[in-house]
Amino acid sequence: MSNTRVKVTIRCNRCGEKFTLRGRKERGRVDTGFKQCLCNNAADFEIEEES
Ligand SMILES: [Zn+2]
User: Fold this and answer.
1) DSSP secondary structure letters along 1-51
2) Distance from the CA of 41 to the center of ligand 1, in angstroms?
3) Residue 2's pLDDT band (boundaries 50, 70, 90)?
4) Residue 4: what pLDDT?
5) What is the Å distance from ligand 1's center to 36 Cα?
6) Which residues contact 35 (CB under 8 A, 6 or more apart)?
7) pTM for this structure?
8) How many CA atoms are closer than 13 Å to the CA of 1, on its beta-carbon side?
9) Do the beta carbons of residue 14 and residue 41 sit within 8 Å?
Protein backbone atom coordinates (compact mmCIF):
# COMPACT_ATOMS: atom_id res chain seq x y z
CA MET A 1 0.00 0.00 0.00
CA SER A 2 1.25 3.45 -0.86
CA ASN A 3 -1.18 5.37 1.30
CA THR A 4 0.50 7.72 3.69
CA ARG A 5 -1.17 9.52 6.52
CA VAL A 6 -0.39 13.19 6.64
CA LYS A 7 -1.36 16.10 8.79
CA VAL A 8 -2.66 18.97 6.74
CA THR A 9 -3.13 22.56 7.72
CA ILE A 10 -5.66 24.40 5.63
CA ARG A 11 -5.89 28.13 5.84
CA CYS A 12 -8.76 30.03 4.33
CA ASN A 13 -7.60 32.92 2.19
CA ARG A 14 -10.85 34.77 2.71
CA CYS A 15 -11.40 34.81 6.46
CA GLY A 16 -8.07 33.48 7.70
CA GLU A 17 -9.58 30.54 9.57
CA LYS A 18 -7.23 27.61 10.08
CA PHE A 19 -8.12 23.95 10.06
CA THR A 20 -5.87 21.10 11.00
CA LEU A 21 -6.92 17.82 9.51
CA ARG A 22 -5.57 14.38 9.07
CA GLY A 23 -5.61 13.15 5.54
CA ARG A 24 -4.38 10.41 3.36
CA LYS A 25 -1.97 10.94 0.57
CA GLU A 26 -2.73 9.01 -2.57
CA ARG A 27 -0.71 9.38 -5.71
CA GLY A 28 0.48 12.84 -4.82
CA ARG A 29 -2.93 14.09 -3.89
CA VAL A 30 -4.06 14.64 -0.32
CA ASP A 31 -7.57 13.61 0.56
CA THR A 32 -8.85 15.14 3.78
CA GLY A 33 -12.55 15.17 3.14
CA PHE A 34 -12.49 18.91 3.68
CA LYS A 35 -15.32 20.57 1.82
CA GLN A 36 -15.49 24.23 2.64
CA CYS A 37 -14.79 26.87 5.22
CA LEU A 38 -17.25 28.36 7.67
CA CYS A 39 -17.42 31.42 5.43
CA ASN A 40 -18.62 29.31 2.50
CA ASN A 41 -15.33 29.56 0.69
CA ALA A 42 -14.76 26.27 -1.07
CA ALA A 43 -11.90 27.07 -3.41
CA ASP A 44 -9.49 29.65 -2.08
CA PHE A 45 -7.20 27.92 0.39
CA GLU A 46 -3.60 27.64 1.31
CA ILE A 47 -2.77 24.03 2.03
CA GLU A 48 0.27 22.94 3.94
CA GLU A 49 1.36 19.39 4.57
CA GLU A 50 3.15 18.28 7.66
CA SER A 51 4.82 14.97 8.09
ZN1 LIG B 1 -13.11 31.13 5.50
Assistant:
1) ---EEEEEEEEETTT--EEEEEEEEETTEEE------TTS--S-EEEEEE-
2) 6
3) low
4) 84
5) 8
6) 42
7) 0.80
8) 5
9) yes
CB atoms within 10 A of CB 23: 19
For 15-51, write each residue's pLDDT tens digit: 999 999 999 988 888 889 999 999 999 999 999 998 7
Alpha-carbon distance of 27 to 42, in angstroms, equals: 22
Looking at residue 13, its amino acid is N
CB 40 within 8 A of CB 14: no
Question: ∠ CA(43), CA(12), CA(18), 5° rounding?
Answer: 140
Residue 34 Cα to ligand 1 midpoint, Å, equals 12
